Description:
This protein is α/β, with parallel strands linked by helices. It contains eleven helices and eight strands.
Amino acid sequence: MPDMQTTMGSAEQGLARIRAAIARAESDFQRPAGSVTLVAVSKTVPAARIAETIVAGQRVFGENRVQEGMAKFPALRTEFGPLTLHLIGPLQTNKVREAVATFDVIETVDREKLAAALAAEIARTGKAPRLMVQVNTGAEPQKAGVLPEETPAFVQRCRVAHGLTIEGLMCIPPADQPPSAHFGLLAKLAKQCGLAQLSMGMSADFEAAIQLGATHVRVGSAIFGHRTAAPADALHPETIA
Ligand SMILES: *Cc1c(COP(=O)(O)O)cnc(C)c1O
């Protein structure tokens, strides 16, 4: 299997390319310079490769699994200082304690039981991660997130019934549809809810998301190279079977 480094260029080069593209999109779409935060999605990426981008100045990362974030980021923080880590995958209530300890932003608040568990953990520890609500803009049955029509009431319940501060909305559009309608819908819902932050756009479509108001784009493969499998499996394909 060819080395990612030789086929895709270094993570540092990928990062520089994406930063330049974000700056260009901010300018093209009349967004203030620096108004879009790049969340570098480092799922399945080994810590050494993440470190390359930290040295190049990247401080904000996204992981989709609590355990993987816990496995990689404490050591990276010890070595490099404060890093902002976003949870961008589903959160089970039995992992809330670990998630609040490790993540600075939880983008995937999507049900009442989770909101209650987060409120209890925040009260217990005094540590409050920033929170976003995930919206299932395509109403896909297999996908997490609150349905669009239920979003304003859910955000309101998070605030009133659970005392949570919700900062924004996040979505993952259906893979087989043009994303812009979903980005537009998320922006409209955020406006209805009085929310300023929008996490939307990935490697293939972050520019369209910036055009439609994204404040956070979540970019993985365009920085770190394609994910074929978990790193250990990629090194030893014979162990998969
Ligand atoms: C993996 C992932 C991304 C990044 O996807 P790329 O196409 O690699 O940029 C963004 N958001 C979520 C929720 C993800 O799981």
